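Sequence in, structure out. Go.
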Amino acid sequence: MLKIIHFLTEAPRLLQDGRIILASGLFDAEWYQLAHPYVVRDKVDPLVHFVKNARKYRLSPSRSFDTARYLDQHADARLSRMNPLVHYIKYGRAQGLAVHRAPPSAADRIIASGLFNEEWYLRQYPDVANAGYPALLHFLVHGSREGRSPGPDFDAAWYLAQYSDLAAADPLLHYIDYGFREGRAPRRTGRVFELARETLRGVEDLEPELYGADYFEHADGIPVINGRARHPVARAFEKIVKRIETPPRAIVFLPWLVHGGSDLVACHAIRSLAEKYGEKSVLVILGDSDRLEALHLLPAGVPLISFERLGEDLSQPERVELLDLLVRNLQPDVILNVNCRVCWEALKRHGGRLARFSRLYAMLFCEDYSASGRRNGYSDQYLRQCLPYLSGIYFDNQTYIDQLIDQFGVPEELQTRLVNLPQPAPDIAEKSPRTRAVGAPLRVLWAGRLMPQKNVQLLLELAEGNPQFEFHIWGRGSHALEMRLAALSERCSHVHFHGPFERFGTLPLVDYDAFLYTSLWDGIPNVLLEAAAAGLPIVASGAGGIRELVTEKTGWLIEDIRNPLPYVQALRDVAANSQQTQNRAEAMMARLRENHSWQNYRDILLHQPYLTGGLLHAAPLDNGNSERASGRNAGETIA
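Output:
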């Protein structure tokens, strides 16, 4: 009786969930049936099955949504009683919660292997064709269990008989997931035995005893190793070499590619390399994560590879080994590391060796801190060990360079390798002075990542305590901070939290009168360059390198960066002194034209560091190697 009551109370919600999911276009019924063939076997509607079971069994609705990862990454979805996909459709998408592709299902892996041949399967098993059963679906539901083979290149019965250690394993999936890597044969290897017989016949005259022995009488019992790469690093290397069209002249290592300032900085460098070498000759590698949320930042045509998506489940030491193998074999002209920990580890462990094959460069921006307040930036962990091997390190501000020289006691001969590289600002269009209706509140824009570094706590205090201004807040990041901003927006009519944005230039910038920046530590963030290029008056904390851009002549620089009162006074000045505001905005644009042009950026990359040559410097590496990648097959492994 209780079960009937539960069903009657749950049925309306399940029906509503089904309608929401169906309307979203995120449910792929065909994929779901192939991924979960027991649904077909039990004659259950795939959508009904997903609605009822997705949360309990962490089932994905399509290739584009990984239910398990969504629940693992987002606590509010995990703690709710909602279907995970419904939670994303109703709440997660608006909040900018990250979603990922589902891991390949058994059907996906079978299709990708190329071992399932639909035409062969239907010819081989006419009962399937006569029943009108889709070939792959029949194999998944029935054929595999009945010992049927998927195609001419895999003999399921022979594979099970040949390898007695498999027990009750699915032979095809075992071969795809393990056997191929282990060098196991997918079917009888007659040609191998023919070659072996020919070899023996060639030496029988030398050893007459061979005449009387038939070593191939029980050929099926002879193990055959096919010579394929067994180590995951070797397999990953082979996959990368097969994916690239030509040996790259430059490789840029990133941790991921998301909507962040360092990602945009990296893509400026990638653009400059692509202009020099051509798009196909620049390879971008995501070394730490498969987060790929800002592909639009990359120049069109530049190839990208993620270590995590190579399907080898590489540990960090294995990724370091893979990076070392790639550089020594591909021998690009230059390597550039932008915040990739795997690359930093490789430079730390193998920098001396890697420097023999490529010129090595990196980028650093500012210090970083752990949750407990301890310094833990890349410079703290790697600069001392790696600087001797690097041809140069580019910074977006001089302040941090001076700080590191003092902190680490960098010797004079290495100081020249630390280069200030002002980042290029967006194109500056001629703009009319901003006007605001008499009596209207100052409309303040804040845009960036919602994280402790950006001092969002101070932003919350400023926004809540100053109703004389109108605050418009854009960004994504910490879910807890997003929830606090959303709650404040609902509570205070003068505060508007708009959520994530893809590009600064897509924001309604003409609707705002000033830009507010509250960071606790920083270099020269790109968002300030973009705000300045848009003609927005800037009120910014004096953290890190910001004071090199924002001064009393170009904006309002806040020295007491944790105190809200100076920010409030600066915003009042912006509101009250329109001529002063216009003058400072024009002075800021003049600074951008002088220091932050694309031409200035490329000139520095071409000529600095002066002694070792810039990232775009064309001189060959003087490393004693007589043979470079251009005269070597990309896949030829160096011992």
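Check: The chain has a mean pLDDT of 86. The first strand starts at residue 250 and ends at 254.
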